[in-house]
Amino acid sequence: MVKEQGRVVAVERDGVWIETLRRSACSSCAGKSGCGQHLAERYRQADPSLSYIKVSSARVLHKGDLVVVGMAESSLLKASFLIYLVPLLLMMAGIWLLSLAGAADWLLFLVAALLLFGGFVVAHLVSKRSADMCRIEVVSVLPPENVFSSTNDQKEE
Fold it and tell me: Mind giving me the DSSP string for 74-94?
């Protein structure tokens, strides 16, 4: 299970909003100067180190509670396959079939773009029907002193 620590920032009838620390690999990446992801991360929000997710929970939680949220690895793999691989496979199959038929390059490009877009639409529709695929749940509630700490942190005396 993929787990992350966070803090409850709002409680609603259908779930709670969890604030987590965003951990980015951009700071250690050698290619960050030419990467659009790094640039988008810098201008994303006032505090780019925080991220907010809405989680449904059977537990009674209050604003300020420290929690561990998690998602099963199999769910993460299924969602990744659906979002990335399905559109690409659809696009590549269309290009391959049209190239076997001897289609012109401009037609290959047009069909590739349409099939890629269509793959994203299919992924979006399938993901709406199977909302349980990526269910994030509250795994545990932590004592207050453990907020955003790692196992390598040492307590000062």
Answer: HHHHHHHIIIIIHHHHHHHHH
Three-state secondary structure readout of 28-67: HCCCHHHCHHHHHHHCCCCCCCEEEEEECCCCCCCCCCEE
Q: What is the pLDDT of residues 44-54, one digit of tens each?
A: 545 556 777 78
Our measurement of the distance from residue 127's CA atom to the centroid of its chain's CA atoms, rounded to an integer in Å, reads 13
Answering whether pTM is above 0.70, one says no
Measured CA to CA, the distance from residue 103 to residue 95 in angstroms comes to 9
The domain locations on the chain are 2-146
Question: What does the pLDDT look like over 41-83, one tens digit per residue?
Answer: 555 545 556 777 788 777 778 788 888 888 878 877 888 888 8
56: left (phi over 0), alpha (psi -120 to 50) or beta: beta
The dihedral formed by the CA atoms of 80, 81, 84 and 88, expressed in degrees to the nearest 10: 170
Q: What is the largest CA-CA distance in the chain?
A: 74
103 Cβ partners below 8 Å, 6+ apart?
Answer: 111
List the Cα angle 111/114/118 in 5-degree steps: 135
> Residue 23 has which token pair?
């951990």
